[in-house]
């Protein structure tokens, strides 16, 4: 579904992603792990158009998307969530979804503001999609709740709904279970499985090893920007390079 060839990103003298080649497989739960600073978020930023690669290519369903902007990538069907879920805390959950949808699929804020005033029909469709997405993530009952009043786990679900409302084919989830308790983590893992059952392809970054090992079909391991291993959870767990990378960092629990 997504083919990555020799992807490299340099920030000055620092190579955050170094000649990584991999693929994200359709209909699967793909995961990216690696110690802090390994280049995971940069990798997502490259795919979603936030950063332009220094070298390499990204091909989505046969189309070269290497230099596309974020809104262009979103319109082609790649959605993402962020480590921190930024919401308009004084607006309702539903309004957050409606505005979020516009921000993800339009090129600028002006377009968002004037677009929403002009195109009523589009707004209606957008509202409907937002409601469907909220229902999918199990938060239909919170539609009118002020976003500032919901829990961290509910914010994570809203982040999923924001991504789903753009009707993506591929979802990039950056630490979907960051900052939530173990029981809530199980609930979020269940929701990720549900996404895949409904034909979404998922790629997630996560530090919670138990979750990744039980959830992922395929894992890519990055360390200092380089791919050091790739395979099933069992293959990755048994790989000496992975064990070394984790023992040399704060995360010795792979
Ligand atoms: N916009 C940027 N400008 C300069 N350097 C950056 C930028 N973004 C990331 N980096 C650097 O690139 C490297 C990889 O960072 P990145 O955030 O991608 O790692 P990560 O694996 O997501 O880490 P974490 O698990 O801590 O979130 C780090 O050395 C970081 O300082």
TrEMBL record:
<dbReference type="InterPro" id="IPR032823">
    <property type="entry name" value="BCA_ABC_TP_C"/>
</dbReference>
<dbReference type="GO" id="GO:0015808">
    <property type="term" value="P:L-alanine transport"/>
</dbReference>
<dbReference type="InterPro" id="IPR027417">
    <property type="entry name" value="P-loop_NTPase"/>
</dbReference>
<dbReference type="Pfam" id="PF00005">
    <property type="entry name" value="ABC_tran"/>
</dbReference>
<dbReference type="GO" id="GO:0005524">
    <property type="term" value="F:ATP binding"/>
</dbReference>
<dbReference type="GO" id="GO:0005886">
    <property type="term" value="C:plasma membrane"/>
</dbReference>
<feature type="domain" description="ABC transporter">
    <location>
        <begin position="2"/>
        <end position="249"/>
    </location>
</feature>
<dbReference type="GO" id="GO:0042941">
    <property type="term" value="P:D-alanine transmembrane transport"/>
</dbReference>
<dbReference type="GO" id="GO:1903805">
    <property type="term" value="P:L-valine import across plasma membrane"/>
</dbReference>
<keyword id="KW-1003">Cell membrane</keyword>
<dbReference type="GO" id="GO:1903806">
    <property type="term" value="P:L-isoleucine import across plasma membrane"/>
</dbReference>
<keyword id="KW-0813">Transport</keyword>
<dbReference type="GO" id="GO:0005304">
    <property type="term" value="F:L-valine transmembrane transporter activity"/>
</dbReference>
<dbReference type="GO" id="GO:0015192">
    <property type="term" value="F:L-phenylalanine transmembrane transporter activity"/>
</dbReference>
<dbReference type="Pfam" id="PF12399">
    <property type="entry name" value="BCA_ABC_TP_C"/>
</dbReference>
<dbReference type="GO" id="GO:0015188">
    <property type="term" value="F:L-isoleucine transmembrane transporter activity"/>
</dbReference>
<dbReference type="GO" id="GO:0016887">
    <property type="term" value="F:ATP hydrolysis activity"/>
</dbReference>
<dbReference type="InterPro" id="IPR051120">
    <property type="entry name" value="ABC_AA/LPS_Transport"/>
</dbReference>
<protein>
    <submittedName>
        <fullName>High-affinity branched-chain amino acid ABC transporter ATP-binding protein LivG</fullName>
    </submittedName>
</protein>
<dbReference type="InterPro" id="IPR003593">
    <property type="entry name" value="AAA+_ATPase"/>
</dbReference>
<keyword id="KW-0547">Nucleotide-binding</keyword>
<dbReference type="InterPro" id="IPR003439">
    <property type="entry name" value="ABC_transporter-like_ATP-bd"/>
</dbReference>
<keyword id="KW-0067">ATP-binding</keyword>
<keyword id="KW-0472">Membrane</keyword>
């Amino acid at each position: 579904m997504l083919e990555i060839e020799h992807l490299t990103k340099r920030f000055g003298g620092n190579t955050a992603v170094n000649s990584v080649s991999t693929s994200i497989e359709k209909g699967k739960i793909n995961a990216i792990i690696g110690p802090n600073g390994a280049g995971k978020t940069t990798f997502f930023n490259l795919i979603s158009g936030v950063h332009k690669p220094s070298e390499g290519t990204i091909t989505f369903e046969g189309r070269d998307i290497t230099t596309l902007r974020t809104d262009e990538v979103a319109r082609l069907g790649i959605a993402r969530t962020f480590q921190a879920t930024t919401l308009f805390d004084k607006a309702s959950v539903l309004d957050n979804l409606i505005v979020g949808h516009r921000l993800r699929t339009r090129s600028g804020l002006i377009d968002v503001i004037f677009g929403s005033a002009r195109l009523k029909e589009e707004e209606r469709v957008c509202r409907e999609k937002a409601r469907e997405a909220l229902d999918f993530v199990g938060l239909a009952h919170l539609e009118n709740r002020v976003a500032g009043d919901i829990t961290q786990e509910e914010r994570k679900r809203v982040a999923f709904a924001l991504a789903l409302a753009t009707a993506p084919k591929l979802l990039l989830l950056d630490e979907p279970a960051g900052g939530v308790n173990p029981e809530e983590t199980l609930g979020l893992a269940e929701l990720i499985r549900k996404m895949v059952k409904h034909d979404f392809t998922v790629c997630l970054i996560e530090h919670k090893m138990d979750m990744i090992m039980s959830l992922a079909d395929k894992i890519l391991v990055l360390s200092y920007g380089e791919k050091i291993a790739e395979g099933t959870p069992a293959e990755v767990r048994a790989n000496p390079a992975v064990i070394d990378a984790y023992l040399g960092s704060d995360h010795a629990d792979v």
